[in-house]
Amino acid sequence: AKSHGKNRVELYDVAYDVKLRRRTELEHELRGAIDRDELHLQYQPVVVLPDVRPVGAEALLRWQHPRLGKVGPDEFIPLAEECGMINRLGAWVLHQACHQLSRWLAEGHDVWVSVNVSPRELHASGYVDQVKDALRAHHVPAQRLVLEVTEHAVSTDVEELIRRLRDLRETGVRIALDDFGAGYSSLGQLRRLPVDILKIDHSLVVRQMVRVVVELGHQFGLEVIAEGIGEQEQMAMVVEAGCKLGQGYLSGWPVPAEHFEARLESATSP
Ligand code: C2E
Ligand code: CA
Ligand code: CA
Ligand code: CA
Asked: What is the pTM of this model?
């Protein structure tokens, strides 16, 4: 029995060690990822339901490492948040997205772009100025940029969050509350939050609980986007619930900027 226990301890140690080493390696590599040009953005269309016409796009960060291959944002974003790199990454994303957006607008496309903002960025002093600088540098009208904040940000200090969002909104950008319904809070807080757009989490779409949230969102004067529409059945349910905007694999995967642009162009031609 004793040796059994020992083996188990060793197994556990090995698994822990592998995880820790991956983490340490990713952290180290991520520090140089911007300079080595390993990051890029993909754009997932937000469409008018049940149509396929894109009205906007969410910018999603991608990391392609020469040796480690593709590393997903679900793995490296939390890491970047923990080790203090998220602000640098976020600044890069913001500039990249504004640059791309300015080109699409210059070509006459009627489109907006959203970027994800981590709580740590939102609460950093100077973030509002950073947003203003990015808009100015790329000549992007503020209302064409959407900043997506998550419900996690709500659970911390609501008053502080409200102040932050107000300041941001004064620049003219629109705010989307991301992943709505994924947590527990918020139905009550929603009324108080200065947001423009409500993004209904994928998990609510799957559980067919969309209608009440859509109605509530519209009652509060918000635009409502149903996320994670991956199947025809979900599409039908979301449309039935009165939701006018949607995003998901069914209407378009996240794609490189050129591919999204091709969709914009085919949507505008007769
Ligand atoms: P999110 O903001 O909720 O983004 C939506 C995620 O759902 C994306 O995953 C997208 O690829 C995925 N998705 C799209 N359509 C469907 C669908 O029909 N079904 C399902 N099951 N999933 C769908 P992705 O790109 O892996 O990003 C994961 C998360 O990483 C994002 O979740 C966001 O929280 C974070 N993230 C990505 N890019 C950035 C960034 O630039 N900054 C920050 N702070 N976070 C980011
Ligand atoms: Ca998002
Ligand atoms: Ca989301
Ligand atoms: Ca073009």
From this structure: 0.94
